[in-house]
Amino acid sequence: MTKYTINKVFEKALASNIWKIEVDPMQPLIAVETRDMDSTEATFQVFDLEGNCRMSPCQADGKEWTLDSIQDGHLILKRVGEHTPIQEGIQIIDSSQNKTVFTSYEFILLDVFYRKVHARHRSIASGETIAIDILTGQYSPSPDNKFEICPNKIQYPITYQTKPHFLASEEIEGPIWLSKCATHYLWCYHQANADGYSLILALSDLNRLLDRQVILSQMGKMIPQPYFQMDRQLFFMTFDKREIVSYLV
Known about the structure:
Elements (H helix, E strand, L loop, with lengths): L6 E7 L3 E7 L5 E7 L6 E7 L4 E7 L5 E7 L2 E6 L9 E6 L4 E6 L2 E7 L2 E6 L7 E5 L5 E3 L16 E3 L12 E9 L2 E10 L2 E9 L4 E11 L7 E4 L2 E5 L5 E6 L1
Antiparallel strand pairs: 1-21, 2-3, 3-4, 4-5, 6-7, 7-8, 8-9, 10-11, 11-12, 12-13, 14-15, 15-16, 16-17, 17-18, 19-20, 20-21
């Protein structure tokens, strides 16, 4: 009989707080934006799905830059500001070479499509927009381009109201989250203990528990959205927002 287990892939500690995580829909990569708590300036890094660093930390030129997405190994950043004279902007970075492909303070990012960024001029609220090629940085009028939706690989768990019979003896705090992996089911929940809270992940078929792991422990509070899933791999962020932990199920 095949034994189904939950196995840790990597645990990655970061120097400052995780602000945002984006998944590449075309390459097995994740992009992470962290923010220094004092300066609030952003730093961007890229990791593969085994936790190996694929782009050394790249500090933003100003705290107004933030990560929008990553596609085919290219980071897409946008610059936003609530107060003038901060200018909007778009920047595209090839993470494989840590090389800037495109930078502009004239355009505002509207949306990201398959291999293209849809943008408009910052001084023109309506009218012609442009399409920026993510790989080359070249741009052309939108009517000359076909915008296609990029596939989404990310799955988020849903809350489940009824405790399954094989978890009847578990003391559960808060909601139970449920997602599916092939023909099996993933159950995620918190337990309270003397050291705070632990986050538990359980793997089951329709009738029985196959494996159970404590994913995070000694947490001061519960996590409102515990993980996101890509096929059989799950990604958790610790409650202090300083580590990413990944498991394969």
